[in-house]
Fold this sequence. Notes:
The protein is an alpha/beta fold and 287 residues long. The protein is 37% helix and 17% strand. It has an 8-stranded mixed β-sheet with strand order 7-6-5-4-3-2-1-8.
Amino acid sequence: MAIDLHIHSTASDGTVPPEELPALGAAAGLSALALTDHDTISGVPAFLARQKDFPEMELIAGVEISSHYAMREIHLVGLFPDIHHPALLAFLDAMRAERRLRAAGMREKLAALGYALDDDELRAAGAHDAPGRPHFARALVRRGAFASVPEVFSRLLQKGAPGYVPRHLPDPAACLSAIKSAGGVAVWAHPIRNRAGEEGFARRVLNALVPLGLDAVEAYYTDFTLRQTECLKKLAAEFHLALSGGSDFHGANHPAVAIGAGSGTLAVPDEVLAGLRAALRPKVVLG
């Protein structure tokens, strides 16, 4: 059977509430499903509360944390963390505070451009305490100011556009420490892109992050070719890392991506769970 260890809910930038995701996973025939919202675990309790309704499918707590390293955003997924651990909660609170500051900056820029948005409009677009770019984009589409979310991004919200505000991200060491302190497995999400030189880049990053407690790489991902998956499996073996994988499901925000199947060809084998569980063994975390 297949699994999906990378999905998002309305607690971050998805469009499906956490408690409704297990039904989608069951309909896809999955044996395990992990909720990994961006910089928050607020949706995890409602997600896990559905376990009794889906005994054939394991529901797993998770989180996806953004960091900055080597001029790139590095996303780290934490699986199986203690969602009540004080250090993890404090770290995520700080991340959410930064998101709120960024949202305030975007809101100010958009207002100056003639696109002022009020709280009701952002809530109607799915925003909670820390609106992200997809929420602003959906709000403007709902208003009728633009025809589509991609149009809002291209004209206002992508990097370099007049409404864009950069994020101030922590380094991966701090993210890894937060995940590991809460007893989680740390996974480098979607590590490579479809361009030249990515294997060398990944090897450099792994040389830096493995000593800090990195446990696994996401070798199975919606956009990956077979060649990319094989490259990451080779790197995982070289660095003695476990494998992980997932669709990066966001609901209607990315309608071509389905839970479990990604864009249609994704199949994360359930045996990777055994490797991830083995990675739960204690490690020394530096920094």
